[in-house]
Amino acid sequence: MKKIILTISLLFLIGCGSSNGQDGTISVNLGSDDNALGTLSTQNMDLKETLSGENWEEITMDLDQFYTTSISTVNKTYKIDMGFKDGKVTAYADCQKLTARYKISDKEISFSRVSYEADLDHAFCQQSEDADEAVNQFLNNSFEAIRIKEDEITFQSDDFDAEVILSF
């Protein structure tokens, strides 16, 4: 078994840009120096942990992608206050309070039981045209997290071929 692992390891090294010198030495090239280690770490961040870490302040999306069949590329950023805790998301957008239950499976998030009510007393009550509609579309669909950073998560929906970015 050890011989098989050693053989596979050597084949992997040879296939990754290694070369045999004239004296029988093997050199291995691991890639360019400009490969950012941060890129690797963002792929391994946990979606559930990242979502519940902070309240999200912005949602960026193209609302037309959810309403029309035309290909649209106009992303707009809306001011929100959205928090994820214990399987429940609460969002304040355009003086509306939206709540829903959420479920995370690996990198996918889905929502259920969305409720929508006016909330003029919340400290965040800012008029931001269509912010409540953006949050509503996010909560009424399922998404896969395709990029997870500490302060930004990019979601993609195959049903609408749309991206949604949460950030703070």
Strand order of the largest sheet: 3-4-5-6-7-8-9-10
Please trace the helix and strand order, writing H or E for each element.
Answer: HEEHHEHEEEEHEEE
Low-confidence parts: 9-14, 16-21, 25-42
| Count of distinct strands | 10
Quaternary organisation: single chain
Describe how the helices and strands are arranged:
Blueprint (H helix, E strand, L loop, with lengths): L1 H14 L3 E2 L5 E2 L9 H7 L3 H7 L2 E6 L2 H4 L8 E10 L2 E6 L2 E10 L2 E11 L12 H9 L3 E6 L3 E6 L4 E6 L1
Antiparallel strand pairs: 1-2, 3-4, 3-10, 4-5, 5-6, 6-7, 7-8, 8-9, 9-10
Main attributes of the structure:
168 residues, alpha+beta, two-stranded antiparallel ribbon, 24% helix, globular
Descriptive overview:
With 168 residues, this protein is of the alpha+beta class. The protein contains 5 helices and 10 strands, in the order αββααβαββββαβββ. It has helices spanning 2-15, 37-43, 47-53, 64-67, 131-139; strands at 19-20, 26-27, 56-61, 76-85, 88-93, 96-105, 108-118, 143-148, 152-157, 162-167. The strands form 2 sheets. It has an 8-stranded antiparallel β-barrel with strand order 3-4-5-6-7-8-9-10. The protein has a two-stranded antiparallel ribbon with strand order 1-2. It is globular and about 40 Å long. The model is unreliable at 9-14, 16-21 and 25-42 (pLDDT under 50).
Short description:
The protein is α+β, with helices and mostly antiparallel strands and 168 residues long.
